[in-house]
Structures are given as C-alpha cells and as structure tokens.
Amino acid sequence: MVSVGVVRVEASRVVKRARRMLDEDGAAHTTRFFAGQAWEHATLPLLRRRRADARFPYDGDELPYEYSLYGQTWRNERTIEVAIARHFLAAGELGRMLEVGNVLGHYGIHGHQVLDRYEQNVRGVLNDDVITFRPDTQYDTIVSISTLEHVRCDEPEKDPKGSTKALDNLKRLLAPGGRMLVTIPIDWNPGLDADIASGRFALDRSTYYVRTSRFDWVECDAERALAARYGHPYEAANAVFVATTP
Fold this sequence. Notes:
This protein has 246 residues and is α/β, with parallel strands linked by helices. Helix content is 34%, strand content 22%.
C-alpha cells in the first residue's frame, strides 16, 4: 500500500515539474507527457505482474527489480539500486548505520542515521557536509544511493574531486570490519567518472551495469559502462557503478 507521505511527496514533485515544463515546453507537450505518466501509474500493478519473474545479477544472486511509485523506479536506475541495497543490508549485521542521502526511507528501510545536507527540517536527518562531516563515532554500515555524484558538482562550491573527497571521508568513518555500499549513475559528473575510470573512486569491489532496454539491466565491464550516456537512449541513467567493501 502506498503511504500518504509518499503521495504527498510525489504530488509536490508533479506540480514543480509541470510548472517548469509549461514554461519551457508549452502546454501541448506538457499535457502529453503527464497523460503518459498517469497511464504508467495506473498500470503499475500490471507491470509488476508482467515483470514478476524478471531478474538481474548481483553478488552471485539473481535479484528482482524494484518497482515503486516513489521516484518512479521503473523509469530509472533506482530499479536496480534499491534492489541492490536491500540485498546488501540483508547480508550482514548492520550495527550503527549511516546513510548519505535520504533515499532508503522512501522504500521502507528505516531505523538508521541519515546525513543529507539539503533536506531541511526532516526528522532524523542530519544537515551536514559529507566532505567535512566529523561525528564522534564510526559506523558499522554506510550506504549511499546515487548521492555522491552531486557533491561539489550540483552545489555552489565546484570541485571535480568533490565526490572522491566525500568517499575518502566516508572511508575514515567506517569502523574496522565495517561494510559500505555506494552506487553512482555514470555520465552525471565528469570529474567523478574520471576518478572511477582511474580507480581513484573505489572500494574493495566494483560492479558495473548497463541498460539494455527500458526495463532491463545487465552486468558489464568498466569500458562499456563508462561509454554510456545519461538520458540516452533511455531516460535517466543508462549505466551504474556499484562499489562495496569488503
């Protein structure tokens, strides 16, 4: 069942996007776009049934795709990122957990500390800079879903190495024997893509995925993933980098 909170957040997103599209693209294009969106929302239960047996590989398992109303995961990289996060979190003891970027709570995963610089006035969310965050303790589990690519790229302070500096700080915050999961959409932040290609932005294990259809993703090598373009040929990310430790 979809919560009232999710409906409110999605409604707010729709209003903001509609206003922007009306200004930029005109009424006719905006009407066609949202008619298609309404149809997809209405037929989401059918998509879930039709794709119930669809799987993608990760960590020796075959994982089901995530089809959630929040974030319209069937349209973008969240369809594998959230599924990977669920698998990762279920595979070990969480202990003291930090999430960077307020994502997982929208998919029913709660009970951990969240660090998000820009989500103001949200209960349980710490508003701090991930590069300079210095808590008085380390964490047994750290997770970040499509967040670090924004660090010093979409922010007022520009730094092509900002994402890697953020990851370096998170490594310092991880307790000995701890576990970390980071996912990144390819071709959003050129500086980060360069650091991924060079191995500068990395954890113990790296996995790459590329999109082969609107709904399907496959594991691939780094060269193929890093050649993918954001928003083409499919909406949002067309390749994803997944890093884990250990």
